Amino acid sequence: MAKSLLVVERVTHRFGGLLAVNAASLAAPEGHITALIGPNGAGKTTLFSIISGFLMPREGSVLYADEDITGEPPHKLARRGIARTFQIVQPFAGLSVRDNILVGAHLHHRARHRALAIAEQVGYGVGLGDMLDRPADTLTIAGRKRLELARALATEPKLLLLDEVLAGLNPSEIRDIVPIIRNFCRRGITIMMIEHVMQAVMSLAELVFVLAEGRVIAEGRPAQVAANPAVVEAYLGHGAAAKLGGAHVR
Amino acid sequence: MRALAPIFVVVAALAAVPLVVSSNVVLNFLVVALLIALAGQGWNILGGYGGQYSFGHAAFFGTGAYVTAVLQVRYGVNAWPAFAAGIAAGAALGALIGALTFRSGLRGSYFALVTLAFAEVLRIVASVAPITGAGVGTLVKLDLRVEAMQFQGRAIFYWVILALVAASLVIARLIERSRFGVWLVAVRENEDAARALGVDATQVKLAAMVISGAVTAAAGCFYVQYFLFIDAPIAYGAWISVEALLTPIIGGVGTVFGPLLGALVVKSLGEAAKLITGDAPGLDLIVYGVVLVLVIWIMPRGLIGGLAQARNRLRRRAPAAAPSAEAGHG
To answer: In this structure, is residue B330 part of a structural domain?
Structure first.
């Protein structure tokens, strides 16, 4: 596989007495889609917050393009080319869709007309073309997820961290957004996504890391990981793999 | 240039007033209203666009006023450079307070309280420090010459403050149209989301506070040239902190014309309340307060925000009848 754009090395983070991430290591190969899955409370979002600079890890390091970026603030990481979306969508509610995307577009373009042109283009790219002048808070959940994508994309990232962009969407909405994400990857953006929607993980990701109770318990191709008894147990509880009769275990 | 056209029209209309009205009472009223509008525009740049609600803009107003007065009276500096120094001092104070508050991550009500505390500390210091004239205050010598920035007629003073207000309107408009302004509004709307998009929130807020401090300080500098007197309760009193935040809130926070409209409306209301209630002390303040509560209740985004909302509602009513455009994507 291609060389890694992002490498997380033995990162540990505690919230008080809670060990949220425990010596987790993972890597995102350049130009590919990597998925981070795991049961609720596994520490996925915490790990994302560490990678994107919102949290400083207690131990371990984060490398991006072979440089140590551990603890760099989010705005500097954004300038380096790391963009993220939020699991709980964070639109600039009082602004129009266009102005929301404009904030991201301004990162590398000072001139207003240039940034506006990019915002519009990106807006069309994620299917928000005819909603550019609407206030962001009038969008449906699916629309807001698209807006999260658009804003991140407008910063022209090299690495895109997607935190559950498909959560809360119905199957047809998911079908609409999956090709958009695949398209980002085709354009050379490396993607790391946290996702619960397994059908999407299976179809998009080339590499999957499974996080449970803060540890990486499995990694590999989607099919390998889904068949891993440790992964099944992490989701369904101790002994579940055996109870399922081993039919899925290769 | 087209973006500045509304400002040009409004300022030109206001500039014509002294040609029609010669009453000193009316001109005095307008000068004070414009002075408040200027202080309010300073607040609006930080509070309206940046969402950082300061309760202590008196700190900037008073510093501008004192620097202008003290430099002239004690150091014999000419009024014009003293005026400029007052504005610079406001910017510097903005940088100082901004660095202390934003770097330590103070947001929302904590930020408001700390700014209030700064203004109060300055008020207490100014009321005892010898250089400010302590409790007596500082009197600027009457010297009705242009070189001393004192003018024979009210009309000239009116045009001077109008020019300052015009400059503040242009500044607000330019901020609105710039990358800095887009980032400032993003910080107001959602600081974390803004940071994720590459916005250095601390830096942006700090810059806003520097501009904000300078603009409000300019109002203080003008106050000294107009009234030729300053003391601690005027310079750093709560009155100006309240006026500075009230006018944009009534007029429309985060809009170019909000502070100007708010100042004219609020000051007119104040005068009207005095007329209606006669000489009963304090009654006009009650009327004034009730009206403010009503305006904020009915139009939480101020007069301009309320009008924009009403216009949008009318505009949206038409397409809303057709099947929602979003359904196609949902």
So the answer is: no
